[in-house]
Amino acid sequence: MHSIIGFGVIFLCIIIARAMFPKVNDYSILHNTFSHLGSYTKDNNPHGWIFFSFGQIISFFVQIPLVSYIRYRVEHVNKIFGRVVTGTMYFGSTCQLLVGFFPATRTIMFGKVMVGAVHQVSAMLGFLIQIIGYYMMSVLITMDRYKCRNNNKKLNYMLVVMPIFVLLATVTLGIVALVTFDFIYRAHKKRDPSIGSNWAESIDTFWSFPLWENIIIYVTYLYYVWLPFTLPFRTDGIVPKQRISQTLKCDFNKIEFKTDLSKIWFEIISHKKCSNKWKAADFLEHLADYQEVEKLMTDEFVQNVTIISSLIKSGETEQIQRIVNNSLLISDEIRPFKWFLLKYHSTK
């Protein structure tokens, strides 16, 4: 939710910066780049540039929690590539922070280095690195669908993966348009050397760089907004051992995994420091996907884990009691549930 609110603030800052752009300067995405909204020069946005810069700085702080969540999603699929993905995203977010601190102006910082040069390098490098990172993320999340057991119940993978291909298609179309015009321009330049520069000839046309830059940036922002809507509130799937230990506040390494499911459940449930029922119910959902016990679980076991943990959280005691008293709970695989529920009722 905080990501959605944060991106809402960012869009509001962009809208305010656009509204404060002087009419005499005739702003248009056909001849003004996105960065012109954040330039304090007289011929750009001398009054509203601060809102644009503030929005870019806010974007950094909004993306950090989102990237932290994605890290838990992808590192268990492939640890090395997972770290590369999150590293590229953190780098891209930092570049966006620099874009906010260094407006697109010709003000000299030191020597011959202009503020606008830092802005341009940060913008281009950050965007390219982030595109690569989000593309790799989509690949790892797709792999996660086939590596984890029941994640598809909480995450619609297509809603996460497909938008990145829409973004890549937009970027590709923009590059094709700019490269195509470059060939057209070179041919015209040979016939008529008196024509203006590539930039001047493309301005206010379908081939202009500002047009495609704005389209790609706004599509990217829409993707950033879309992503929090598609991701579940908390992480699920194969959860790192350390994260489970922190959740339950107990030493997970003391729990020995053997082929006997009853033994596994007894050691987990009887652990004194794991008496918080809500945390224990949350742990049930994670247990079914944990690598060391996944091979011992059947589909029926996983299904019962989901049902019982949800019943505990919702407090439906009557239905829980019926499960406890059910004479069918006699198989070796289901018996641990009865132990868990009896312990739950005895301390409730």
From TrEMBL:
Entry's transmembrane regions: 49-68, 80-102, 122-143, 155-181, 215-233
Highest taxon above the source species: Eukaryota
Keyword annotations of the record: Membrane, Signal, Transmembrane, Transmembrane helix
Signal peptide range in chain numbering: 1-19
Record keyword Transmembrane present: yes
Designated name of the protein: DUF998 domain-containing protein
